[in-house]
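Weekly structure sync, notes
Attendees: PL (lead), two postdocs, one rotation student
Agenda item 3: pending single-chain targets
PL asked that the sequence for the first pending target be pasted directly into the notes so everyone works from the same version. It is reproduced below exactly as submitted, 116 residues in total.
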Amino acid sequence: MNGKELAEGLGRIRQTKSLTDYPLLIFTVCVVVFFVLKKLNLEAWFKPIYQLSFVLAILGFIMLFVQESIKCPNCGKKFNVKINGYSFVRNLFSRKCMNCGLKLDGSNIEEYHNDL
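Predicted structure, written out during the meeting:
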């Protein structure tokens, strides 16, 4: 696999990670806004903010499962999951493949583009 194909694969992984991070970040902001509105006694905004935060939490939860199933473009194993026999180690915040070490930012593509 050449460096360009690895870079494209890493781009898809970065895109999926950001699709996971944004709903969870907005959900956190909604929770903070909810408590600020409660303190200001603006109950009219509770229902829309509650509904938005519920949808974002569900979307973020689904995207976490999608993110876990992403495969590394270099080794073909799951990017965020290290499998050691019968145990699984998950790190959804990892910035490198948990199996081969390919970095998400592509700074070490030169080391890996001839592996396969």
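Discussion points:
- The chain has one domain: 3-111.
- The chain is about 55% helix and 5% strand.
Action: rotation student to compare against the earlier draft before next sync.
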